[in-house]
Amino acid sequence: MNENADPWMIKWDAKYYLTATTGDNITLWSSNSITNIATGLQKTVWSPSGARSNFQDIWSPEIYHLYHRWYVYFSADKNGSNKTHRDYVLQSVSDSPWGPYKFAGNINSLNSQWMIDPTILTLRGHLYLLWSGWEDAKNQIQCLYIAPMSSPTQVSGSGVMISSPTYSWETSIAPINEGPVVLQHNGHVFVIYSANASWTNSYCLGMLKLTGNDPLQPKAWVKSPRPVFTSANGVYGPGRASFVTSEDGKQYWMIYNAARYYDSGWDRTIRAQPFTWNRNGTPNFGTPMSLNTAIPLPSGEKPNRLNYSPLQEQGHSVFYVNVPRAGTYGLYLRYKNATGATTTQSVDVNGHPQLPITFPPAGNTSGGTPDSVLDSFITLPKGRSKIQISTNSYTSAILQLQLTLTPVPLSADEESSSQLSK
Prior knowledge:
The model is unreliable at 418-422 (pLDDT under 50). Helices cover 3% and strands 51% of the residues. The protein starts with a strand and ends with a helix. Strands 9, 10, 11, 12 and 13 form a five-stranded antiparallel sheet that branches. The chain has 422 residues and is mainly β. A hairpin with a 7-residue loop joins strand 10 and strand 11.
């Protein structure tokens, strides 16, 4: 997925739902498959207004279905002042993930300190809130905390610290533990969190394991002495993971963000790859797979795109495509861009101009410019069409074009109405 960060994906009622940091709203994507979610249903389900119109820097939203309602947890500050970051929650008015949502308030009004990245642990019928926060305004080391909840919208007790950055891989750039996410499997409870500075290649994933019965006891959480997922294979700064099973439930997949290229800072993309489990019950995430690595589709997922290779004609990458019916299709382009800046290329369909496409930089390494992938949309008539995308001396050729097999689905508003009528 070309843009955004802090991905949170869940599988519910045979569909996948994704939300991610956009910065100024809560946006939801949905698809029947993991791999097509970037071009699936999309809707902004909440934007700050009224008394919340000063909310900015809306980070790390997560969506949950609890007690026949949907809840979205997120962090935000006021008027762009980072020191005012706190955690908030929205509640759906009906039993639809598409909303509408009402603002339910500060999820942890008992805590007056800086806090971000709220996430939920459900364990033996009890709810707990986890987050990343400062111990105090002067000591701005980011630690992980947990507190009990009396309802999906209210914390009912003081938070306790369960992790602070102590190892060199957590502190080499900045002492940070953030982005906690719960992963449960066969009775084991883990918290997978992001460590170090998110704007650098040193960002990585760490892991806590619950070894006792009470998650509110700090000593019950044991930290892995080494990161469980870190930069490798031309993938830099992987972090902020969430976890789902494949369509048939036979595989586990990790959805995470990584830097677009070496030292690209907060210019990140959202990626997916499978993981397995060790004999001792811990997750085995392996190493990040480069964008040049072919990965089989998630188990149970049917092929959902057609591949096209380009022809070069007078400064254009040309693709001859054939679609079963008129409509707007999901478009994926694999490309190279060594300019160090975003380029904008014109697009024609059968000689008719379309909206141009912007190609973010893909970075540069001693081994050459790595591939990058861009997701977009294109409207096509039924049957055979000629797609032309301009190139120039500063942008390497587009390597491959993919189209979804069928037009993109109903709008999110129509989908929501359909669910409510069932």
